[in-house]
Amino acid sequence: MPDYDYDLFVIGVGSGGVRAARMSAQYGARVATAEDRYMGGTCVNVGCIPKKLFVYAAHFAEEYHHAEGFGWGPAAPAFDWQVLLKNKNKEIKRLNGIYQGLLDQAGVTHFDGRARIVDPHHVSVNEQLVSTGKILIATGSWPSVPDFPGCEHVITSNEAFFLQTLPKRSLVVGGGYIGVEFAGIFKGLGVDSHLSYRGSLFLRNFDQDVRQAVRDELHKKGVQLHFNSLVEKIKKHGDDDLIVHFADGSQMETDLVLYATGRHPSVNDIGLENVDVACRSNGAIIVDDEFRTSESSIFALGDVIDKIQLTPVAIAEAMVFASTQFNDEPRLMDYDGIATAVFCQPNIGTVGLTQAQAEESYEEIEVFRSTFRPMKHTLSGSDEKSLMKIIVDKATDKIVGVHMVGSEAGEIIQGIAIAYKAGVTKAIFDSTIGIHPTAAEEFVTMLKPVS
Predict the structure, then answer these.
(1) What is the 3 state secondary structure string of 388-447?
(2) What is the CATH number of domain 340-444?
């Protein structure tokens, strides 16, 4: 048997890469990792964590206003972007250290530098050649910006987390998680916020009721929504102004354009040309159920395989990989019933099928839906509405989809996702006693279907 320097070499130390490295090492493998950007990957540095911190910051403006209905005097708070930026950077640095510590504690050797695959069993880092039994690619994804006149003037979510000054006017282009979230963040922080999406309604893969509810709430909050809108070119005017030209002939003057039109697998310059690793047209690495590529010693997981681009999914894939490869306990990844949240304002939480998907999958379904004004807003004066929706297969009474738009939707749906995975029925929901007064109790008190 060949004598390699390591049993596993992991390229990329995001959430998936770190978990795979740690668990494999704990199972007895000799493991090394390499990273040329930042410890913790996208989620920790330019994704989930700083974005959620920004969402918290953006929401405080509303909280000040809502407090007046509860007897607190009016306030005119002054927002300081530099304080938020400084504190966010401090927290991310702390998390970087934690991730490094996790690798150290597991006995993983870490290389700071860009790793490139030389052949099926060799990787080069900083001109050092390392041999390894297996290679795991966990390099994540990177924001995509289409090529059009003036595209050099736009930023992506990567740069948005490090803006030195907050713009007075912003245009976010895109209709997915990131676009909708950043449009709300900018508005909450006092920016004149616009969102442009090429289709008739954003959040394309979400339930139609959810999409419409979020559209209505963002509009109430003052985000200027532009649907069926396509940017044709961008020109710089003066030192700071940007003139955005749309395909319909209209124009917009703004200080900042953020493109959130998708992410592509990050596979550039990692040496894939040196091995027989098959990829899809967008660069996504093709893997089997064991996360093995067409090169038997090379594996991949997380965003780079472009199945479901969520941090917890990458971590779960890493657990399956490590158990199968180094713990003599083969496992398969279960992609069914993965809950997700969008931290727009108000939040989205969802698990299971949309109504349209359920109608295609089942002979007859029942839909239970409730739209209401949360108790808090009976005094706050806000017209914000919450939406809750349950989709049931009528033949079995099994719940096949649950969706929510409202405060703390992600926290509420997380608990419901456990019940969903256990195969919960509507009868069980109906027999559950609600916690009163909460918004979540609405999920166990919807007794009559709307359709």
Answers:
(1) EEEEEECCCCEEEEEEEECCCHHHHHHHHHHHHHCCCEHHHHHHCCCCCCCCHHHHHCCC
(2) 3.30.390.30
